[in-house]
Predict the 3D structure of the following.
Amino acid sequence: MAQMNMVQALNSAMDVCMARDPGVVVLGQDVGYFGGVFRVTEGLQRKYGEHRVLDAPITEGGIIAAAIGMAVNGLKPVAEIQFADYIYPGYDQIVSELARLRYRSAGAFPAPVTIRTPCGGGIRGGQTHSQSPEALFTHVCGIKVVMPSNPFDAKGLLIAAIEAEDPVLFLEPKRLYNGPFDGDPDKPAVPWSDHPKGEVPEGHYLVPIGQAAVVKVGTQVTIVTYGTLVHVAEVAARCMNLDAEIIDVRSMVPLDVDTLVASVRKTGRCLIAHEATRFSGFGAELAATLQEHCFWQLEAPIERVGGWDTPYPHAFEWEYFPGPGRLCAALERLMVAS
Amino acid sequence: MTPVSRLYVPNSPARPGQAPDFSYVRLSPAGAVPRPAVGAALSELEPLAQSLIRVLDDEGVAVGPWAPALTADELQQGLRLMLLTRLYDERMFRTQRQGRISFYVKSTGEEAVSVAAGLALRSTDMLFPSYRQQGLQFVRGVSLVDMMCQLLSNTRDMCKGRQLPVFYHSVPKRLFTISGNLTTQVPQAVGWAMAAAIQGREDLAATWTGEGSTAEPDFHNALVFATVYRAPAILNVVNNQWAISTFQGFAGGEQRSFAARGLGYGVPGLRVDGNDFLAVHAATRWAAERARAGGGATVIELVTYRVAAHSTSDDPTRYRPKDEPAHWPLGDPIERLKRHLIGRGLWSEARHQALTTELEELLSVAWKEAVGYGSLNEGPRLDSDLMFEDVFKAMPQNLIDQRSELRRERGMPWRK
């Protein structure tokens, strides 16, 4: 096993896939010679050549559409959109085309494209480098949506995405690239090498798409979360002295309903937490699904925590970010209610 | 064995460790390009998209039909504003490195692109810049303190803490709010120009985007609307050769010039030496006259070079030769205008030094005042209640509730 941060794990996933399958190609802005603004594709062009690791013109719609064409013609493209905040010019190609090609052609033209894109805040990126747009894509039928919270899952999930026969939107919480982050910006940064999930096999392995992970087993309350908030949830539960069961959703589409339901039925209490804006966020889908399945076991209304219903403001990054404080307040409400 | 790929992949002429090579930049001698009347037919204008309009020759003498008739005052003002832009950039870059501001974008070497164009327009014309035309802010007289307060996200920040540094705006100075998303402002400028035409006003809209950003569909959208409605707009393409690590070949620059992008739509293009203050001024004036006369939009490609990194988050030595800036064939816009003025007896090294000192002092005084209004990390901070304002004109109930929730959160023991 090697020690990897999330950048290295993602890089290794693409390396493994490119070595095994000559049809895997990488394209995106700055991904080739430069190796990507977050260094995720570092060294891949040197190793696999400029015909398999393509620097692309600055047009997200063009990148995604070209990836569709390549996929339809037998390649396995991995497209990078430099920031999730910049994905919108490609939205039509994702929503109207990529997600529906298999359906509208009755299976004749599937397009197994992987779209990687860094998301989330915590790097002082302001409203154009901090967004978490997952709900805009989970509402679209025909594209899988995943978000890892650690290097081990990142590599296994990305290999699964590249090898999948369906399109996958692969969201990378950029605040976690170099280390886990518990929501306190004043604490010194912690590297992945101090974390068990920073141990990553060098070769091929899969983290199957569609499976949630129970990060911590507990009895009093279930925290359903994903991405950066997995680490915030652990701190919040500790602060509140709660024996919480923490579930990392990992795969939003398809959703592992069974794992979530089993946990909430067991604990009878549920907090849903994500970094994205709360209103119409993916947490709404989680809450609706869980109450359908767990209504008679619930001891309290399901709590939902997220970013506020505003754009991500540069100067108020930590007031916007759902840190341990906001989670603790929600946990307190959950435990008081009976 | 995989078959050999027939795909063409553009290659930067020089990478780190190699000798800089700008032989791909097609030059015309200063003064050589004809200046057609603004009412000339498109067929007569077409060659202007391939040649390079230059006024200042190698000795700093203004030559040819594009040489504008500017007064000594106007030229000195141009030099002053370009120098102010450069000194401001240097100083704000240093404050970022000291951790006082979170991010910065320099425009070193591209000062003429904004200052000369800005000075060639009327103060009633609306400007839609990208994030590298800070010179326009100085042309329009936005105060240094206001600009610095924006960079500091402090209590006097015009954006109320919501934007990254350098995304300025000013309603009275007619400077549109700057976006981090590329090219979005270009078709918006065309829409603004259409509205000016609808309302029977003479104002025009000018916008700036990078050559890399012309790949975005919004550039095509702008050209379609510009040609259909003959919108009084100037679409500037700042070809500074690099979009982060993406060199201009990846925006299609190897086949035809960016100035020629409009020709297929019926929009003429001027390819201009972007480091020649006089050429930029003259080309902008020409396009503005044409727009005001009902001739419609013009694309102006400003051939220049991004001397600095893309931003404070970038390290260009990873993808281009370290000494590439020194080999740029079109020189430095400030040095070239200075030489011209000295040659005409309108300037001197001593005056230049005195101006530098004066501007440095202005910047120091402004910075001292600006930091007094706080910063992201020190001094008075913006009230985080402000986060919930301006999402809508009137605050809806969910935001009122969340504002209260945040106030409670701030008072809780587990938040520091």
Q: What stands out?
A: The mean pLDDT of chain A is 97. The first strand of chain A starts at residue 2 and ends at 3.
